[in-house]
Structure formats: structure tokens, C-alpha cells
Amino acid sequence: MKKYTGTEKAVRGSYLNLKNWDFTQVEADNDMLPGEASVSYIKVPATLAMVAGPLTGLLFLVFLPFIGIAGFLGFLGYKAYTGVKATGVWMGQALAFRTQPGLASFTRETKGSDDDKADEELDELEDEVARRKQDDADDAGS
After folding, report:
1. Count of domains for the chain
2. Is residue 13, in this structure, part of any structural domain at all?
3. Is 125 exposed, middle or buried (0-12, 13-18, 19+ CB in 10 A)?
4. What average pLDDT does this structure show over 72-95?
5. What gap in Å lies between CA 9 and CA 31, rounded to an integer?
6. DSSP secondary structure, the chain, as one string
7. Which of 39, 53, 69, 81 could form an SS bridge with 35, CB 3.0 to 4.6 Å?
8. Is residue 37 part of a domain?
9. Is residue 63 domain-resident?
10. Is residue 103 packed enough to be buried (19+ CB in 10 Å), middle (13-18) or exposed (0-12)?
11. pTM flag (> 0.85)
């Protein structure tokens, strides 16, 4: 089969665009094929075009329900995947240990040099508060 290119003059007939599989009709002799020079065409015999047209329509008609089912199953799979992923992120965030600087946590007891120093400072502060309360009470009573 002879290959033709876009903008080339061609004889009357049907031509198949090899780039996007489009059929193009040339109505009169010496008409130009559409497209640029980089587009390739082949001339399709009339009998082949008459047989191939209905067969491609039949294939489309037969496989269209399968394409719809495959698309629907793909959509359901995508939704299931994103749902599981979002649930995993939500559960991971709920179960993750989060540190919050500046927030006291009295649920765990840990021993260490920093904790002993903090306990001493708290004891000193408690003594200071008690002493000032006593001083205020003495000043109010006199």
C-alpha cells in the first residue's frame, strides 16, 4: 500500500489517517489530504471500507457494556482505596503519640534528674506560697 502525507494531492476515495485512525473522504480527483506533511495516510479500498465500517460498529456495540462495567468497577475500586487510606490516616492520627510542649501530663511517672530537680523547685514554691499566706494572715490579724 502506498503511503500518502497531509497536503498531498490524492485521487478520489477513502483514506485512513495512521496517527489517529480517522477515515477521510476525498470527493474529487486531485483534492488535497487534510493535515500537515507529518500526517500519514493510506488509501483504503472501497470494499474494505464497506466491510470494516459495520464491523467496527458491531465491535463497539458488543464491547460497550464491558467497558461500562470495567469503568464502574474501577470507580468502586478507587473509592474503596481512598476510603481505606483515609481511615488508616484517621486511625493513625488517633493512635499516634503527640507531644505538646508546655502541657503537663500527670498520667505517667518517670524518674530522672530533671524530674527530681522539678520536684525540688515545686516543693520550694509550695513552701513560699504557704509562707506568704501565713504572712498575709498575720498582717490581717494585727
Report:
1. 1
2. yes
3. exposed
4. 90
5. 5
6. --EEETT-EE-SEEEEETTT--EEEE-STTEEPSS-TT-EEEEEPHHHHHHHHHHHHHHHHHHHHHHHHHHHHHHHHHHHHHHHHHHHHHHHHHHS----TT----S----SHHHHHHHHHHHHHHHHHHHHHHHHHHHHH-
7. 39
8. yes
9. no
10. exposed
11. no
26-57 pLDDT per residue, tens: 888 888 888 888 888 989 888 888 888 889 88
**Which range has the top average pLDDT, 11-20, 91-100, 115-124?**
11-20
What DSSP string describes 81-110? HHHHHHHHHHHHHHHS----TT----S---
Note down the domain range covering 20.
3-44
Give a yes or no: residue 25 inside a domain: yes
End-to-end CA distance of the chain: 121
Distance, CA of 109 to CA of 90 (rounded, Å) = 29
41 Cβ contact list (under 8 Å, min separation 6): 3, 4, 5, 6, 10, 15, 16, 17, 18, 24, 33
